[in-house]
Amino acid sequence: DTGVSQDPRHKITKRGQNVTFRCDPISEHNRLYWYRQTLGQGPEFLTYFQNEAQLEKSRLLSDRFSAERPKGSFSTLEIQRTEQGDSAMYLCASSLQGQETQYFGPGTRLLVL
Amino acid sequence: GENVEQHPSTLSVQEGDSAVIKCTYSDSASNYFPWYKQELGKRPQLIIDIRSNVGEKKDQRIAVTLNKTAKHFSLHITETQPEDSAVYFCAAPKDGGATNKLIFGTGTLLAVQP
């Protein structure tokens, strides 16, 4: 499968715990995006990388959220001290610079109890 | 920044009928408008997109039209089939498209009745 992959697909955690998600983009894509999707809503932009540089963070991304893309390939999204309001689907997408099309991964569904 | 509104939120049609979903955007500098289809529990998949230098684009049973003056674009599905049932999202680039960050509409749940 040469598409965008995400791991894990599902995560259940208790409030206050830390969680980390991984995204592997399409191999030649140098842009990587994180979105959050709650039930009945469209994806909301969180942050994006061009190669290893994190170029923008949404105001939705509180200090408890951090994302990295250390080698310009895979990315991780960490949520510290999770809250019930963090429960959502976390989607990753990638694109090639100069091309608009974003390809989405299957998402990681997070449930915070 | 961009704001995208999408209507209707739900749409039920009989198999074989046409379906139309409409979106409006606020940033006149936006230049790229994709439509994604998301089946239950699956990833959003791009089904068609249009750039601001054209007014219409077709791909078999799917078409998208763009009215830059009115700042709205629409998805048209003809001869609907049960497998077209899904949630459809329109999107537009934040900040006029400079970095391709997308702002999504709230989605339309399309139900095609056999």
What does this structure look like?
The complex is a heterodimer of chains A (113) and B (114). Chain A is mainly beta. In chain A, the strands form 2 sheets. In chain A, strands 2, 4, 5, 6, 9, 10 and 11 form a 7-stranded mixed sheet that branches. In chain A, strand 4 and strand 5 form a beta hairpin. Chain A starts with a strand and ends with a strand. The mean pLDDT of chain A is 94. Chain B is mainly β. In chain B, the strands form 2 sheets. In chain B, strands 2, 4, 5, 9, 10 and 11 form a 6-stranded mixed sheet that branches. In chain B, strands 1-3-8-7-6 form a 5-stranded antiparallel sheet, with no helix packed on it. In chain B, strand 7 and strand 8 form a beta hairpin. Chain B is globular, with a radius of gyration of 13 Å. The termini of chain B are far apart. The mean pLDDT of chain B is 93. Chains A and B meet through strand 5 and strand 10 of A and strand 4, strand 5, strand 9 and strand 10 of B.
In short:
Chain A is an all-beta fold. Chain A has strands at 5-7, 10-13, 19-24, 31-37, 44-50, 53-57, 65-68, 75-79, 88-95, 103-104, 108-112.
Structural class of chain B: mainly beta
Shape, per Cα inertia axes of chain B: globular
Q: Count every helix of chain B, treating DSSP H or I runs of 4 or more residues as helices.
A: 0
Into which percentage range does the β-strand content of chain A fall? over 45%
Overall structural class of chain A, as computed from helix and strand content, comes to mainly beta
Helix percentage of chain A: under 10%
Mean pLDDT of chain B: 93
Helical region count of chain A?
Answer: 0
How large is the radius of gyration of chain B? 13 Å
Return Rg of chain A in Å.
13 Å
Biggest sheet character of chain A: 7 strands, mixed
The greatest interface here is: A-B, 22 and 25 residues
Terminal CA distance of chain B: 41 Å
| Uncertain runs of chain A | none
Query: Which residue ranges of chain B are poorly predicted, with pLDDT under 50 across at least 5 consecutive positions?
Result: none
Count of β-strands of chain A: 11
Tell me the fraction of residues in β-strands of chain B, as a range. Answer: over 45%
Give the averaged pLDDT of chain A, no decimals. Answer: 94
Name the helix and strand elements of chain B from N-terminus to C-terminus, one letter apiece: EEEEEEEEEEE
